[in-house]
Amino acid sequence: MLRIRGFEIHPNYLDLSRQRALVEEVRSVVAQAPLFQPITPSGKTMSVRISAAGEFGWLSDRQGYRYSSTHPNGVAWPPIPPLVLDIWRDLTGLVQQPECCLINFYTDDARMGLHRDQDEAAFKWPVLSISLGDDALFRMGHSERGGKTESIWLHSGDVVLMGGDARLCYHGIDRIKSDTSPLLSKGGRINLTLRVVT
Question: Cβ neighbours of residue 56 under 8 Å, at least 6 residues apart?
């Protein structure tokens, strides 16, 4: 385990067989709650496509950033897959279960600007992030915008835990390196982010 600015990075946490099993679980979720491309409140289309599982999903549109109990098409989000919950329990040690598993799909030209997860009701619970597929350059900042940042390449099977001092630190994805993982037949990266919403 590596610790950078309070971010706990667990390299190679998932072996290839568990990664493949997770991908199948994600495909089952997306079959029920299809990926969609949100827009920011300012009207800019995000470069990632998203979906979710759990009691809540995360939405962004002209009305702002928020959690919702339903997909934009009106259906309830599917349950969080069991293998995902196993990872949460193992790395957090918490009895508290996550209420949202946000699914972000990155093509090789997708990015995620520096942001912090702050739409939840309380920040005492960690955020857990699972990487599947192509490598991603993960940038970590401070609890306030500005200042020096640090970056690390995340590989398929890596897991990042953001709790304590890192819970409200800015972070983002600057680059996807294509053809670095055989996990997804058409390439790209899946990021699963677990949060306690309420």
Answer: 67, 68, 69, 77, 99, 100, 197
Which residue reads 């709650």 in tokens?
33
> Tens of pLDDT along 63-106?
888 999 999 999 999 999 999 999 999 999 999 999 999 999 99
121 sits in which H/E element: none
At residue 14, what is the residue type? L
CA–CA distance, 167 with 116 (Å, rounded to integer)? 8
Q: What is the pLDDT of residues 158-188, one digit of tens each?
A: 999 999 989 999 999 999 999 999 999 999 9
**End-to-end Cα spacing for the chain:** 29
**Rounded Cα gap, residues 146 and 12, in angstroms:** 31
What CA–CA distance (Å, rounded) separates 191 from 162?
14
Cα 16 to Cα 132: distance, rounded to the nearest angstrom: 10
Q: Could you write out the DSSP letters of every residue in 78-113?
A: PPPPHHHHHHHHHHH--SSPPSEEEEEEE-TT--EE
List all residues 6 or more positions away from 133 whose beta carbon is below 8 Å from its beta carbon.
Answer: 106, 156, 181, 183, 184, 187, 188, 189, 190
> In whole angstroms, how large is the CA radius of gyration of the chain?
15
